[in-house]
Design a protein that fits this description.
Strand content: under 5%
Low-confidence stretches: none
Number of strands: 0
Helix content: over 70%
Structural class: mainly alpha
Number of helices: 6
Length: 145
Amino acid sequence: MKISSLSIQQLIWFAGLAQVGLVMGSLAIPRVLNWRQELVKVQPLIKQMFWTYAAYILVINLCFGLLSLMACRDLTGGSNLAMLLTGFIAVYWISRLLIQFFYFDRANFPAGRRHKLAEAVLVCLFIFLSVVYSRACYLNYVQLS
């Protein structure tokens, strides 16, 4: 169990690094998808809510990343809190993956090789994060049993 715990800690640390990287990359999304021009078409309240939700998602991703970088041992400690938190993060990323394929209207995705590559990298990242945190949740559950 010790080797398994160490490797899951390393994976969580890398997941944290990846999430911080995702946050940095996400700063370009408004420009790439031309949010300012698109949001001119909506009422001010809708625009404010949109920016608020976008900021919340960015901060949550950053917090998950920092938590994973600074507390990877605690996230694998076998406590109820560790199990619930890694489970929550797993559900968050699994949900994001499902949204990518079953909710987003792909007809309006930006065209071009670079955008397709960026989407593929994001999907791989969402899969990686989903698997890492699901595994961590499971290992925490096993330690509790």
